[in-house]
Amino acid sequence: MITSLRHAATATALALLPLTLVSQSAHAAAPSESDRLAVAVGLLPVSSESREGYSRTKFKHWNAGLDARDGCNTRAEVLISEAMAAPVIGPGCKLEGGEWSSYYDEQHVIGASGLDIDHMVPLAEAWDSGASAWSAGRREAYANDQGASQSLVAVTAKTNRSKADKDPGEWLPPAAGALCRYAVEWTSTKLRWGLAVDQEEQRRLYQLAAGCGDEVVTWTPAP
Prior knowledge:
The protein is of the alpha+beta class. Helix content is 41%, strand content 13%. The strands form four sheets. The chain has a two-stranded antiparallel sheet. The N and C termini lie far apart (49 Å).
């Protein structure tokens, strides 16, 4: 009788084990969310911004990347992942050759030296919008975010420096064909990281959304 009860208890435990594992897995991986651009913009909290206390050094960026063993930092890993024609990866992760498309200005770029890696939402703008309250570790995760393809983007150095730390109320890509994609990716990044918008930024995003048809924003909340 005792043996039978033990067998029954063991069987019950084994039957429950997969459910426990599924539950833990579902808890660990946040589901993606999607909505039309205009609706997604409305989900962003509106707040005034402050740059008090900001320093770029408060966002440790270009760390060891996704694979600390490959010798490539985050910047190089993004360049490699976004290349249209792969560069040759030399010692010390020196990149030779390769081809890229800079969507901000619709330029074809040969060689990594002509590119910058742009934080879709610049570090200073992130600080203004809520990152000032984050821990140093979360700011580092933000500055090196390869968990969403829109967070970091390879673009011409000229457009990246023209953008600087401006939001869409102050700067938009020069290529007309880039505007809807940019609005989607900006909104997605802010939703992913729980960042706010100011009133002029929100107004410009709604304005863009009005001309972007049924563009959909998809985002996964950052860990």
